[in-house]
């Protein structure tokens, strides 16, 4: 069995008061706009698979299978999530990181506009990684 250790003990996530494990700051601080559909799907899997500290040890093979995508696309998504500070990774562990609390939030109207843009983009062009039913 894999021994789990925190990759960033100073960033153990806590349940936000505003919305379960998925923090509103993903939208309000502009993280979603920096992510592709595959990035967001990977993040969602890691959030839902993680324990209380945000740790999970799903294998890359299993994550690629769940995402139904090419390993190169998967690798790119993992690196993007790490670069923007949403996850940490060290084989075989993933850690979903706490979001900074000092982020300047945008106005609600900007959130709605960003959400609509994301929704339209996803409706127009699904990533080629996904198999359509």
3D architecture notes:
With about 130 residues, this protein is mostly helical. It has a single domain (about 20-125), classed as Winged helix-like DNA-binding domain superfamily/Winged helix DNA-binding domain (Arc Repressor Mutant, subunit A). Helices cover about 40% and strands about 10% of the residues. The chain is built from 5 helices and 3 strands, in the order ααβααββα. It has helices spanning about 25-30, 35-50, 60-65, 70-85, 110-125; strands at about 55, 85-90, 95. It has a 3-stranded antiparallel β-sheet. The N and C termini lie far apart (about 35 Å). About 20% of the residues are buried. The mean pLDDT is about 80.
Which CATH top level class fits? Mainly Alpha
State the shape: globular
Low-pLDDT segments, ≥5 res: none
CATH superfamily name?
Answer: Winged helix-like DNA-binding domain superfamily/Winged helix DNA-binding domain
Task: For the largest sheet, list the strands in their spatial order.
Answer: 1-3-2
Number of domains: 1
Helical stretch tally: 5
Radius of gyration: 15 Å
Structural class: mainly alpha
Concise account of the structure shown:
The chain has 133 residues and is mostly helical.
């Amino acid at each position: 069995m894999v021994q789990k250790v925190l990759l960033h003990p100073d960033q153990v996530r806590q349940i936000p008061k505003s919305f379960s494990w998925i923090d509103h700051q993903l939208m309000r601080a502009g993280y979603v706009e920096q992510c592709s559909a595959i990035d967001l799907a990977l993040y969602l899997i890691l959030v839902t698979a993680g324990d209380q500290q945000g740790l999970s040890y799903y294998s890359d093979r299993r994550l690629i299978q769940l995402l139904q995508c090419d390993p190169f696309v998967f690798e790119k998504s993992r690196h993007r999530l790490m670069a923007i500070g949403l996850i940490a990774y060290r084989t075989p562990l993933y850690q979903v990181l706490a979001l900074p609390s000092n982020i300047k939030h945008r106005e609600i109207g900007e959130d709605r506009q960003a959400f609509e843009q994301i929704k339209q983009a996803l409706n127009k062009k699904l990533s080629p990684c996904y198999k359509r039913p």
